[in-house]
Amino acid sequence: MTAPEDTELRTWLTERVAEYLGLPAHEIDTGRQLADYGLESVYALALCGDIEDHLDLRVEETIVWDHPTIDQLGAHLDRLRAPRPALEAG
Amino acid sequence: MTAIEAVSAYLPPVAVPIEELGARLGVDSAQVRVFRRFYGLAEARYEPDGSLTDLLLAAAGKLSALRGQEGRVRYVLQARTLQNVAPYPVNPLHEVREALGLRHAQAFAVTQHACASGLLAVDLAGRLLAADGDPDALALVLTGEKAFTPVAQLIQNTTFMGEGAAAVLVRPGGGPDRMLGYATRTHGQFAAALRMGPELAAEFETRYLDCLAEVVLGALDAAGLTLADLDLVLPHNVNRLSWSRLCKQIGYPVQRVLLDNVPVTGHCFCADSFINYQTARERERLAPGDRYLMAAVGLGATFSAMVFEH
Questions:
Q1: Contacts of A38 in chain B (CB under 8 A)
Q2: Which of B27, B28, B34 best tests the A interface by mutation, with the highest count of A CBs <10 A?
Q3: What percent of chain B has pLDDT over 90?
Q4: Which of A18, A48, B153, B297 is most exposed, with the fewest beta carbons within 10 Å of its own?
Q5: Which residue of A has its CA nearest to B242?
Q6: Is the link from the previous residue into B223 a cis peptide, with omega within 30 of 0?
Q7: How far away is chain A from the Cα of B33, in angstroms, using its nearest Cα?
Q8: Burial B170-181 (b: 16+ CB within 10 A, else e)
Q9: Within an 8 Å CB–CB cutoff, is residue B155 touching chain A?
């Protein structure tokens, strides 16, 4: 399986996670579960708060558990941000 | 069989915003922000000038079902999380027993399940009354504590503690608010509680939902019920997130978990479910025949759930 395309959002997520973990960003595996890194839940939620500020949207409080890797989280946020198709005029 | 005869709850008057609590206790602003946005915490209630005796008397004093029935009370149980709450020879439990005119009753504290000791005390009270064989006897369970040190005011990464209190009158036998099932499990590997190292703390966090689900489903099973039969959950008030995640895991609608008090009270040690019971009654969330579940988690660690029929 090829690696997901690296996006600005994934880069930003990786940098935020790296900061909370105290690790260099290049050591973060975006396909690895954040819980496996020992990211405490309160900081996983702090990440959610950062996401809300960064993307100006509200996320579900369970988002980090529902989408436990950076890749999955990024993909979910991409879907949340995707423009909705315009309704056809009646 | 054990049944709840009456419950009265007392919320102290001073509401302190969690930002102020966080500043006092050295909690970083990122955590406090999480507590408000995702945990659903907003304030906690305190009685700065009141003692533990005052708190418990404030709750028991509202228990109208106790007035005139003092002679029927055989036991007074204080369910508490904190092992030591007063310097010897001060004894708040004995002070409360005396003030309530219950000197004839045996009084003792129940602490072994930490914040789950309230449910343990209800079960113990019912068993003692059943063993005595007097269908008219009662027991009084007192819950609520002073968050009198920083250690007693904060559970790191989890919640702030509050000083709400509740008094529970327990009777033997059936009838309204009879207990249908009780499940409790202590996981001794977490006995260090607040002093757990990072690895154990991470394991506790990882296992928390499974352990809570086990006793919720276990209590229902003991009652001969399933989740579909459960009308209302009266939870601990630790935070909203633990309940939304649990409900997602077990497939129970979070709308049926009474979380109204999470932003109001803080986590009030052993008193949460009983405070929520009073709120449920006041807001007409319980109808005769409804099945409801009280749940509590005590550090050390004990997970408990108790099912009743209203």
A1: 198, 202
A2: B34
A3: 90
A4: A18
A5: A62
A6: no
A7: 8
A8: bbbeeeebbbbb
A9: no
DSSP for residue B93? H
Q: How many CB atoms lie within 10 A of CB B64?
A: 10
Per-residue pLDDT at A40 exceeds 90:
no
> Considering chain B, what percentage of its residues have pLDDT values greater than 70?
100
φ and ψ of A66, to 5 deg: -75, -30
Question: For A42, which of B157, B202, B206 is closest by C-beta distance?
Answer: B157
Interchain CB contact of B127 with A (< 8 Å): no
Peptide bond preceding B176 in cis form (omega within 30 of 0): no
Under the banding of pLDDT at 50, 70 and 90, the label for residue B294 is very high
Q: Per the CB < 8 Å rule, is A41 touching B157?
A: yes
Q: Stretch B39-55: mean pLDDT, rounded?
A: 96
- CA atoms of B9 and B31, how far apart (whole Å): 30
Q: Which of B115, B129, B113 is nearest to B76 (CA)?
A: B129
What tens digit of pLDDT does each residue of B233-290 get?
999 999 999 999 999 999 999 999 999 999 999 999 999 999 999 999 999 999 999 9
Q: Is the per-residue pLDDT at B50 higher than 50?
A: yes
| Residue B253 and residue B179 in contact, taking contact as beta carbons nearer than 8 Å | no
> Which residues neighbour B264 within 8 Å (Cβ) at sequence distance 6 or greater?
B11, B15, B42, B43, B45
Cα B43 to Cα B264: distance, rounded to the nearest angstrom: 5
**pLDDT reading at A87 higher than 60:** no
**What tokens does B99 get?**
């003030």
Q: How far is B228 from chain A (nearest CA, A)?
A: 23
Of B112, B201, B118, B116, nearest to B155 by C-alpha is: B201
Q: Count the neighbouring beta carbons within 10 Å of the beta carbon of residue B3.
A: 20
| Location of structure tokens 């946020």 | A77
Q: Is B206 on the interface with A (CB under 8 A)?
A: yes
How distant is the Cα of B30 from the closest Cα of chain A, in angstroms?
6
